[in-house]
Specification:
This protein is α+β, with helices and mostly antiparallel strands. It has a single domain, classed as Orthogonal Bundle (Arc Repressor Mutant, subunit A). 63% of the residues lie in helices and 14% in strands. It contains 4 helices and 2 strands; from the N terminus they run αααββα. The chain has helices spanning 2-7, 14-25, 31-43, 62-85, and strands at residues 47-52, 55-60. It has a two-stranded antiparallel sheet. Helix 2 crosses helix 3 (31-43). The longest helix is centred in the C-terminal third of the chain and has 24 residues, at 62-85. The radius of gyration is 15 Å and the shape is globular. The termini are far apart.
């Protein structure tokens, strides 16, 4: 969901995901892991893909965007209550 949250309505490639994770988290992960995750998300209808200049690009579906918003809202609510509990 981190992937969908970052790219939102943009088209992106597996390389874009690798670059994002490396820049944001300073972690190098295998391209196999990234592509496996992207294909799994596509099977779950969270992403859709197409070919662009011999490159597969992905884009979030409405289902993927909706699920990401729900998770972000749940995290915000959780943080709100955690802040209240510490006061």
């Amino acid at each position: 969901m981190l992937i969908i949250g970052h790219f939102q309505d943009q088209e992106f490639s597996g390389y874009d995901v690798l670059e994002f994770i490396h820049k944001q988290m300073r972690v190098l992960i295998s391209s196999g892991t990234v592509y496996y995750t992207l294909y799994s998300m596509e099977r779950e209808k969270l992403l859709e893909s197409s070919e662009m200049r011999k490159k597969r690009v992905f884009k979030a579906t409405e289902k993927g965007l909706h699920k990401t918003r729900l998770l972000m809202d749940a995290k915000a609510v959780s943080s709100f209550f955690a802040n209240i509990a510490t006061k």
